[in-house]
Amino acid sequence: MNEALKLDVRNLQAGYGDVQVLWDVSLDVAAGxxxxxxxxxxxGKSTIMRTLSGLLPVKGGTFSIDGRPMADASAxxxxxxxxxxxxxxxxxxxxxxxxxxxxMGAYLREDKAEIAADLESVYQMFPIxxxxxxxxxxxxxxxxxxxxxxxxxxxxxPSLLLIDELSLGLAPRIVDQLSDRLREINAKGVAILLxxxxxxxxxxxxxxxxxxxxxxxxxxxxxKDLQGNAAVREAYMGLGAA
Amino acid sequence: xxxxxxxxxxxxxxxxxxxIAAGFSLVWGVLNVINILHGSFIVLGSxxxxxxxxxxGLHPFxxxxxxxxxxxxxxxxxxxxxxxxxxxxxxxxxxTLTFGLDLVLNNAMLVAxxxxxxxxxxxxxxxxxxxxxVFIPGDKLAAMVLAVALTYGLYRxxxxxxxxxxIVAVRMDREAASLMGVxxxxxxxxxxxxxxxxxxxxxxxxxxxxxxxxxxxxxxxxKAFVVCVLGGLGSVPGALVGGLALGLLESLGGYALGPExxxxxxxxxxxxxxxxxxxxxxxxxxxx
Lengths: 242, 288
Prior knowledge:
The complex is a heterodimer of chains A (about 240) and B (about 290). Chain A is of the alpha/beta class and about 240 residues long.
């Protein structure tokens, strides 16, 4: 285990029931880094995220956060260890107000004054959420919901933010806005592991990338290199060689 | 005016029905468990109030506290030991489980307390309230006020507290709740405990109004069911509205058609409402 790494995943195997989805997945995220997981539908990207946040059990291999092994940890332990998972499809508490959704993100925290301050800083980051704080989260647009989901993730004061499908179903203008916010969050020292179907947007945002195919990591490297890689361009970007 | 009197009777009854149903609705809405034990929980609350009054002189209104504590502990333990094992199974499985647990609890009460009807006879009843031609027994009125206050307390707990938000979050999306660090099984146990607490507290209040016997459990369960479906599943304001609707219906309908038809009337309305507005009067997807 390398203790300098925020997240270190070694030979991870996981899946649903008897169906194994991940076969020997190894990847890592350094502190303060943005890493993208790229792959097509059904490649196992979301399964990686769900395993790392404790929703699915680890069947083989292991992973660690700040050098501490976490393969047996519960979802709550992983939140305490600094992981916040912004799930695919946002999964907001739809009939709860925006404010209550954000407060749910701080569920395990006891420091009331700090929670109030963090709530304000989320409102500053996404002013539209301040306007809609009393509104049911489910009544907002997709982009606003994604902002709320990211804000909810930040409310646990994570050191590693897992974001599953940032851009799915959102207008490019909104995706650009969200990407800018993520850069700001990252600049404050939060590492980000991003799953993205929009390969161009994902590699644009990330420092490094891992290509996942059929439950295995097939290629990895700096985002710049992957952007120029002929196989990646052809398979995932619909482009010819550079 | 007899109708004003009937209206007053209906509102008093309705407030009590709201407290009977609120806990049942919470458990059904959040855990998707139809808790057949709920009627026996209410009866057990009544017995606790009865014995505390008989042997310790504790007023049944104050017995809300010990009855609530005992029932919370019982509910919490039943959820932790039994119901959590099957809580994600289809509703028929959990219904069968609570049905079986109810047989055990209800028969245990029959053995311990017999089926004889008992009643709390207060040594110093509150004076009745007389407003013109309307006459309301003081203790009944006070019981109704306390029942509504309990229901309101549950509403505030769910809306304004950390644990309340977690309960609502689990109702809406268990998996997303666990991503927030919510220990879902713990919240399940607390939710079931609160449902039992509400039943026990309501039972303590009812002890001064209804005769107490384990046989009455199905009567209370039936009321909870009707109120819950009338008002909308899993909503505290729904329980209040449903309770008032049922109270008024029984009071006015009982006068118009004779008291023997009041249950028929309420279930007929229930069937009608299921056709017209299956989500209930205040039903919506979330929890309030």
